[in-house]
Amino acid sequence: MARFLIGTVPVVGHIGPAAPIARKLVERGHAVWWYTGKAFQATVEATGARFAPIVSGLDYSDLSNVPEAWLAQRNALRGLDQLKFDLKHFFIEAALGQVQDLQALLQDFPADVLLADNCFRGAAWVHELGGPPWAEFGTTVLPARSRDTAPFGLSVQPSASPLGRLRNRGLHWLLQSVLFRDVQTYMNAVRARLGLPPVAQGFFDVTSAYLYLQGTIPAFEYPRSDLPAQVHFIGPLLPNPPAHFTAPTWWEQLRTHRPVVHVSQGTVATEPADLLVPTLRALEGENVLVVATTGGRPVEDVAFVPLPQNARVERFIAHYHLLPHVDVMVTNGGYNGVQMALAHGIPLVVAGKSEDKPEVAARVAWAGVGIDLKTKTPKPEQIRTAVKKLLSEPVYKDKAQLLQAEMARFDAPIQAVELLEQLAQSRQPVLRGKPVSR
After folding, report:
1. CB–CB of 118/139 below 8 Å?
2. Which of 145, 276, 404, 412 could be bridged to 235 by S-S, CB 3.0 to 4.6 A?
3. How many angstroms separate the Cα of 399 from the Cα of each of 167, 260, 339?
4. If you ran DSSP here, which 8-state letter would residue 317 be given?
């Protein structure tokens, strides 16, 4: 039996992928503690792991803990400036408290391995300060720097040609030395407060030299001839079936011959005017059934009068139950939702421009499994045209089903845990091509 200490930033999209791993570690007899925000205590304990709350760090699972001045400053920013604000304050600055809390936890629970999401810097810094080896798991597309790809964040298609590699090298320099230079300076200043030396690695680079778990399949990710050997594709980290499900009164309508179009903006960027309402308007009168979920917002925020006869709006429906009935998914590009759709062979219309969503959308287009609208606020006619294209041209469905078949060959929790067990046993980097100890 080994001891694993998990650390995740207190955001849904970072908690979800860790849950199947934590559950499988517990099932295999390992001791697991999980450090994150208080709002996720029930989620953590449902896996069998012991919950360890954020104490010294910033627990922004409850926004009332965030200084009002920070929120006001952040909300006044847009695009790249807002992203850089988030990186500095919610990820880099927050890591100081993470280090303090993790070091205290390690006194009571001397973990063999730290496991953290790729935005949780505290684990890396605790390791540098003498802590145990650590592993990362991805919560979005693979951000690994490569000569064959443009930098993460630019949503530029890859190119391994001589000219493409020249372009990539120039863009990497531009991003690191110009656009994100202040973020790098900020990170090294925060590291200095812990007595750590400056680093040249950017925030989005793969930083664990031991193990990086990428929750998808190679066919969804840009090929890299120089992919770090510690990066392992393990297949999508899908949630367990919900314990309870009460079907809406209209559920049997999913079984008619009409195509079903599902539109969702996840649980974070839930402004209905961005995507939900335009999709309802776009498909009004079309021979489809539109199922919209609000991500927890009141249905009244989305439903306009009169609501189209072919539309059904709910606050939440578990994808486990809904997606087997869906023919096309319209999404703002949340990574976990896209992986869920592809695991069901569903082609996608993607409209997202914040956080990592443009990169997710770019890979959907690159893999041929959907259409990238390249905007956060598409017009109804853009959505209508894209949905009709996916329904009428089988190539998108065919490619989505190819990815579905490949995903079915993976068991992400098992593969993640076997790799983590090897790290706990060897305390050495776990590299591709080497047999996994069982």
Report:
1. yes
2. 412
3. 29, 19, 14
4. -
Report how far Cα 97 is from the mean position of its chain's Cα atoms: 23
Residue 18 one-letter amino acid: A
Contact (Cβ atoms closer than 8 angstroms) between residue 117 and residue 137 = yes
Buried/exposed 231-255: b ≥16 CB within 10 Å, e otherwise: bbbbbbbbeeeeeeeeeeeeeeebe
What does each C-alpha distance from 335 to 232, 313, 327, 358 come to in angstroms? 18, 22, 19, 10
To the question of domain 251-407 being in CATH 3.40.50.720, the answer is no
H helices present in 136-291, as ranges: 162-174, 181-193, 276-282
Q: pLDDT by residue (tens digit) across 193-227?
A: 999 999 988 888 878 999 999 999 999 999 999 99
User: Distance (Å, rounded) from C-alpha 55 to C-alpha 192?
Assistant: 22
Mean pLDDT of the chain: 92
The DSSP output letter for 232 is: E
Compute the distance between CA of residue 130 and CA of residue 128 in angstroms, rounded to an integer: 5
236 has which bridge partners? none
d(CA 310, CA 256): 12
Q: Do 251-407 and 3-235+410-426 have the same topology in CATH?
A: yes
CATH 3.40.50.2000 at 3-235+410-426, yes or no:
yes
Q: Please state the domain extents for the chain.
A: 3-235+410-426, 251-407
Please compute the mean of the pLDDT values over residues 405-419 and round it to a whole number. 96
Report pLDDT for 437: 45
